[in-house]
Amino acid sequence: MKRILAQFMAILFLLPGCGEPVSVPDTEVKEPDMVEVIMSEMSLSDKVYQLMFVTPEAITGVGTVTQAGEATKAALSDKPVGGIIYFQGNLKNAAQTKEMIENTQSYAKIPLFIGVDEEGGIVSRLGSNPSMGVTHHPPMKEIGKTENPEKAYDVGKTLGSELLSLGFNVDFAPVADVLVNSGNSVIGNRSFGTEPEAVAKMVSETVRGMQENGVSATLKHFPGHGSTYNDSHTGYTASQRTLEELRGAEFIPFKAGIASGADFIMVAHITMVNATSDKLPATLSKEVTEGMLKGELGYKGIVITDAMNMGAIANEYTTEEATVKAIQAGCDMILMPKDLTVAHNALIAAVASGEITEERIDESVRKILTLKTEKGMIK
């Protein structure tokens, strides 16, 4: 009887003058998920290349790339990487940069993340070149000294709007490291300061300003490079910090940046000798990425390695070892492997041997394509 009554009421609502037709959500046919459709058409090789964030030279073999033509077009067809990072030598002036990026994007089957290191201070690939016509920000230490988070928001807003106007969609900034070691030279005045809560406010607002203006922020260098004495660019670098110490200082700005929605987090090549049992560089440590970053801090965004051609990795591991270990540890993207082809082939071989499952590759590809879709890159 109840069923008959329900059917009658449904018919009644469809009669003229009885209100608008009612929809029945359970019977609606949903459109296929765009990300899943794209993934269904990708080969394993295509998926692995999406995990790679490389220089234009890594795909073209050209000395220093300053334009994108047939060589770039052919390279992206053969090696459809997920992202391209440009350095100062690639960036001559605003018009040249914009044209190079536009052409590069036009050759990509799946739109590319286009990234740059633009922090302010000494790490300013664009701002240090007057021909780029963008703001050269002071070191973030100076912004931190103002104790005014609005200043950090303004930095993020300016970075976002100016980078976006040139075609960039990812900035490898802000530095979220707390300078707990005053003798640390690799971070130094790149950090907002020495007080975790104060740094956290600055990081949070920089992320917000940047991402509200169209460019993805990258918190770096997890779990915190501010305690080290050595530079991971040149070789092995250790941190003596315990997990409890990290929770009381270094993690605080990363939590704030995560709460502000940071799209990327970069993992450092530092070895946390007192906070992990595996004693591996954080980039290669499942305890750091899966345990601390994704587990304890609950991060759901894209985890990218620091540049894999840096001494702390390249001097200690082969490209094959480092690439496979980074993906096993939970990283989603490999930044600047020493040899792109070798890194790609290492992951293909790891899937073939069962060392890594294709489902694990899919997990990272899905994150990458989802962000590209959410940002309007994939339409």
Word description of this protein:
The chain has about 375 residues and is α/β, with parallel strands linked by helices. The protein has one domain: TIM Barrel, CATH 3.20.20.300. About 45% of the residues lie in helices and about 10% in strands. The chain has 16 helices and twelve strands. Strands 11-9-7-6-3-2-1-12 form an eight-stranded parallel sheet. The chain has a two-stranded antiparallel sheet with strand order 4-5. Helix 9 (about 195-210) links the parallel strand 6 and strand 7. Helix 2 (about 35-40) crosses helix 16 (about 360-375), helix 3 (about 45-50) crosses helix 16 and helix 8 runs parallel beside helix 9 (about 195-210). The protein is globular and about 50 Å long. Residues about 1-30 have low confidence and may be disordered.
Which features would summarize this protein structure in a list?
single chain; 379 residues; alpha/beta; TIM Barrel; two-stranded antiparallel sheet; 12 strands; disordered N terminus
